């Protein structure tokens, strides 16, 4: 399939890639706040058991020279890390009592 | 009962008798007039950290800082082996020299010289005026008389500080005192992988400083970040630091805390994502290979405790360096914007990741930091709102809140000293 975003070893996660393989923390955090708990739970349940496989796969490459599909996989798992907080701690997408508070990530590594 | 030994006086606070133990008045956080006094007596007199040397990798690398607390914008630039600071202002008619699109926003980049957008005057990296458009139209203009206005700038261990006093009262090294002797030699320069955050917080700058310099709040405010059984234990235990120290009347101090979470004694103590990635709030569980942490500088782990986890060094007035036992560090800036508003900047510094696993572990530490800081930030706005009512004005601070107590006292002391000095000058003049 030509529109595949992830390495074929991770075809089971392909359905999440378009929504969650995002380049910046700001995009990932925004996507998290825009999601429902069932959506976050579905991502978490599908991806967390694959974390070890994904890192073993990604560790084959130089971090600053990831093939495009591997970079997408890395970004997908950045989103999984972000989504783990609603699922494991908050039971809601937003940090409780964080109201209008925000903390913008202004400087982050390219990958 | 104390789990960790306290000084012979019975408490950390009483170990420093000049602090007193009385309730603390927070009028200093809700008064516009008081903020003006802080600007004059503190921010315009003392060394202020504005960043790290890694932000200036090459000759000509520069960044600007908007500093409302001293009513100016500055340029920090690397000129060969020297870091220089200048007021960000053209000598011709006062236009802001370096900016893009929005005059109030900070910028960074690399250049050979600074060119004013208005009439094209050009300045070298040393601040000298090198070119004046249509120079012959001017009257007796000697370019040597119009360099950029420089700001005192010194570095220590790669940390860049500026000072806006006409003549600083002391060198940067003397100013830092025991912070410098305690931390010199730590491999700060090897931790070049950074993640930076900022937020405008609707609270006085001292309130965030207070929040991050005491951990008495942690088992309560952050209880849901631990697994349920652990959260109950943490609340029953409460928080006790391993050690506190205040460094004379400098306003600097340190709180040393334990680090049982990295790695945890029992894996069930931490959330599943932390177990899988072997990382969390206290950072990746493994120290970065290749960074020599075998011999720590004398200021770290002052209690020499085997459960040591992190030391938070408060650098008066508005800077914090937090060194984690696992081999990374954090910095915080609290830049006042008004008496009830400040800019918070937090930055994480890691050794460069060797691979995706290292990077993912750092990401978990960074995301965790943000989740904690969001809880803290919103609580501060709630505090500011209720302080403003003045329904209560005096607040009892406990022994674990010695650094907040010291901060408010030092601010008050500096303002009193500054006022006394100015009265002397006035009376001499009259």
- Rg of chain A, rounded, reads 14 Å
Number of domains of chain A: 1
Largest sheet of chain B: 7 strands, antiparallel
Find the CATH superfamily of the largest domain in chain B. Naphthalene 1,2-dioxygenase Alpha Subunit, Chain A, domain 1
Helix content of chain A: 40-55%
**CATH architectural grouping of the largest domain in chain B:** Alpha-Beta Complex
The CATH C-level name of the largest domain in chain B is Alpha Beta
Structural class of chain B: alpha+beta
| Shape summary of chain A | globular
What does this protein look like?
The complex is a heterodimer of chains A (111) and B (430). Chain A has one domain (12-90). Chain A is built from five helices and one strand. Chain A has helices spanning 14-20, 25-33, 37-47, 51-58, 68-90, and one strand spanning 104-107. The longest helix of chain A has 23 residues, at 68-90. Chain A is globular, with a radius of gyration of 14 Å. The two termini of chain A are 26 Å apart. Chain B has 430 residues and is of the alpha+beta class. In chain B, the strands form four sheets. Chain B has a seven-stranded antiparallel sheet with strand order 2-11-10-5-4-3-6. A seven-stranded antiparallel sheet of chain B has the order 12-18-17-16-15-14-13. In chain B, a hairpin with a 3-residue loop joins strand 15 and strand 16. The longest helix of chain B has 33 residues, at 356-388. The A-B interface holds A 25, 48, 51-52, 55, 58-59, 61, 63, 66, 74, 77-78, 81-82, 84-85, 88-90, 95-109, 111 and B 193-199, 201, 224-225, 271-273, 276-277, 344, 346-347, 353-357, 359-360, 363-364, 366-368, 370-371, 373-375, 377-379, 381. Strand 1 (104-107) of chain A pairs antiparallel with strand 12 of chain B.
Layout of helices and strands, plus pairs?
The complex is a heterodimer of chains A (111) and B (430).
Chain A: H1 14-20, H2 25-33, H3 37-47, H4 51-58, H5 68-90, E1 104-107
Helix pairs in contact in A: 2-5, 3-5, 4-5
Chain B: H1 12-15, E1 24-25, H2 32-43, E2 47-52, E3 61-67, E4 72-79, E5 82-87, E6 108-110, E7 114-115, E8 122-123, E9 129-131, E10 150-156, E11 159-163, H3 172-176, H4 178-183, E12 193-201, H5 205-212, H6 218-221, H7 228-237, E13 243-246, E14 253-258, H8 272-277, E15 308-315, E16 319-324, E17 328-338, E18 341-350, H9 356-388, E19 394-395, H10 402-429
Antiparallel strand pairs in B: 1-19, 2-11, 3-4, 3-6, 4-5, 5-10, 7-8, 8-9, 10-11, 12-18, 13-14, 14-15, 15-16, 16-17, 17-18
Helix pairs in contact in B: 2-10, 5-9, 5-10
């Amino acid at each position: 399939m030509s529109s595949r975003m992830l390495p074929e070893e991770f075809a089971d996660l392909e359905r999440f890639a378009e929504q969650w393989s995002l380049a910046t923390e700001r995009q990932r955090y925004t996507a998290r706040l825009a999601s429902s708990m069932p959506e976050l739970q579905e991502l978490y349940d599908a991806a967390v058991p694959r974390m070890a496989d994904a890192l073993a796969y990604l560790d084959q490459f130089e971090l600053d020279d990831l093939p495009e599909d591997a970079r997408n996989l890395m970004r997908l798992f950045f989103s999984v890390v972000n989504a783990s907080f609603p699922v494991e701690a908050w039971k809601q997408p937003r940090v409780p009592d964080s109201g209008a508070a925000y903390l913008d990530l202004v400087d982050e590594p390219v990958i | 009962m104390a789990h960790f030994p306290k000084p012979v006086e019975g408490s950390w606070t009483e170990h420093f008798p000049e602090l007193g133990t009385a309730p603390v008045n927070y009028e200093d956080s809700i008064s516009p007039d008081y903020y003006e006094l802080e600007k004059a007596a503190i921010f315009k007199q003392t060394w202020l950290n504005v960043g790290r040397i890694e932000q200036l990798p090459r000759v000509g690398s520069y960044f600007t800082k908007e500093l409302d607390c001293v009513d100016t914008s500055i340029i920090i630039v690397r000129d060969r082996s020297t870091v220089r600071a200048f007021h960000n202002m053209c000598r011709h008619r006062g236009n802001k020299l370096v900016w893009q699109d929005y005059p109030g926003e900070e910028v960074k980049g690399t250049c050979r010289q600074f060119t004013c957008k208005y009439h094209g005057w050009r300045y070298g990296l040393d601040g000298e005026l090198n070119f004046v458009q249509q120079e012959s139209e001017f009257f007796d203009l000697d370019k040597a008389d119009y360099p950029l206005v420089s700001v005192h700038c010194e570095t220590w261990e790669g940390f860049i500080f500026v000072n806006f006093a006409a003549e600083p009262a002391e060198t940067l090294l003397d100013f830092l005192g025991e912070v410098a002797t305690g931390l010199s030699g730590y491999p700060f320069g090897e931790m070049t992988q950074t993640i930076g955050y900022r937020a405008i917080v609707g609270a006085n700058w001292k309130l965030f400083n207070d929040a991050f310099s005491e951990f008495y709040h942690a088992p309560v405010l952050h209880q849901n970040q631990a697994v349920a059984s652990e959260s109950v234990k943490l609340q029953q235990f409460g928080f006790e630091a391993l050690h506190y120290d205040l460094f004379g009347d400098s306003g600097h101090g340190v709180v040393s805390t334990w680090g049982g979470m990295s790695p945890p004694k029992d894996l069930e103590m931490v959330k599943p994502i932390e177990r899988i990635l072997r990382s969390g709030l206290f950072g990746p569980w493994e120290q970065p290979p290749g960074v020599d942490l075998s011999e720590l500088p004398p200021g770290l782990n002052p209690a020499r405790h085997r459960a040591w986890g992190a030391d938070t060094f408060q650098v008066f007035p508005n800077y914090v360096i937090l060194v984690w036992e696992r081999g990374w560090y954090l910095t915080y800036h609290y830049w006042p914007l008004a008496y009830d508003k400040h800019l918070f900047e937090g930055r994480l510094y890691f050794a460069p990741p060797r691979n995706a696993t290292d990077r993912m572990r750092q990401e978990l530490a960074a995301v965790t930091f943000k989740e904690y800081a969001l809880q803290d930030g919103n609580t501060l706005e709630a505090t500011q709102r209720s302080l403003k009512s003045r329904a209560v004005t005096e607040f009892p601070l406990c022994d674990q809140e010695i650094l907040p107590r010291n901060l408010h006292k030092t601010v008050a002391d500096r303002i009193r000293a500054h006022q006394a000095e100015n009265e002397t000058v006035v009376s001499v003049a009259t």
